[in-house]
Design goal:
The protein is mainly alpha-helical and about 160 residues long. The chain has helices at about 5-20, 25-140, 140-160. Helices cover about 95% and strands about 0% of the residues.
Length: about 160
């Protein structure tokens, strides 16, 4: 008379009744509510953490921009200093070349003066030898004695 499905239905109803009597539905609801609350808290904490992370990211991006600007300023300053150093180096090299050129010109002028002096000395020596030869040949006899007397007289005037 009562088949197996009937007894399954009765067992199921009794099971539901037992669950109702033990107030399992309230415990399940309470557990679900606690879990929902915990998830809600975790979501709010995640939102706070996300906000903090966004602020931190913005802060780092601002610092990055500032560091890049500072790096550009340092590079620009270094380029300016390099240009100044290069200009000063060119000026020093130009000054060094001018001094060396002036020294070389002075050495050339000194060498020219020494050469001219040596040429004059050589010319004077040659003229003196030539005059000596001419005078030896022509200064014999009375003419030679007159020249000697005249030279001695000129020396007396120069010494007094």
């Amino acid at each position: 008379m009562f088949d197996q499905e009937f007894w399954e239905l009765v067992a199921f109803i009794l099971f539901l009744g037992l669950l109702g009597y033990l107030k399992v539905h309230k415990k399940v609801t309470s557990a679900l509510d606690m879990r929902a609350e915990r998830i809600s808290k975790e979501l709010s904490e995640a939102a706070i953490l996300r906000t903090e992370a966004a602020e931190l990211l913005a802060s780092f991006e601002k610092k990055k921009a500032e560091a890049e600007a500072e790096a550009q300023a340092i590079i620009k300053q270094a380029e300016t200093e390099a240009e100044i150093i290069a200009r000063e180096a060119r000026e020093r090299v130009a000054d060094f070349v001018r001094r060396r050129t002036k020294q070389a010109e002075e050495k050339i002028a000194s060498a020219e003066a020494a050469a001219a002096s040596q040429v004059r000395t050589a010319a004077a020596d040659a003229a003196t030898r030539a005059a000596e030869i001419v005078l030896k040949a022509q200064a014999k006899g009375k003419y030679g004695e007159d020249l000697i007397d005249k030279g001695i007289a000129d020396l007396k005037h120069l010494l007094h």
